[in-house]
Amino acid sequence: MAFVALRMFLLLLAGNFEASSQLQNGHLSGYKIPECYRYRLPGCPRDLNPVCGSDMTTYPNECTLCMKMREEGRDIKIIRDEPC
After folding, report:
1. CA neighbours within 13 Å on the CB side: how many for 17?
2. Which helix (H) or strand (E) holds 53?
3. Which backbone phi and psi does 55 adopt, to 5 degrees?
4. Distances from the Cα of 46 to the Cα of 1, 3, 59, 81, angstroms
5. Best exposed site among 1, 17, 19, 52 by fewest CB in 10 Å?
6. How crowded is the C-beta side of 42, counted as CA atoms within 13 Å?
7. Against a cut of 0.70, is the pTM above it?
């Protein structure tokens, strides 16, 4: 029984280490923090560079995702740089 508990503890510890090592340049488990500081009001550029938000919505570009975050006060990450 002690062996099983020790093994579970080591697996948990290894999982925590892996998760902490994935945190790099705003990325965690494939999620990216949008760089909203790059975009100023009153509007967004009309370029089409779709991003998939963590709310499972496709946004035309990162700026429109940031505008949604500002409007609703929610924290939305970028899952990938393509449509959902």
Report:
1. 6
2. strand 51-53
3. -90, 10
4. 61, 59, 12, 16
5. 1
6. 0
7. no
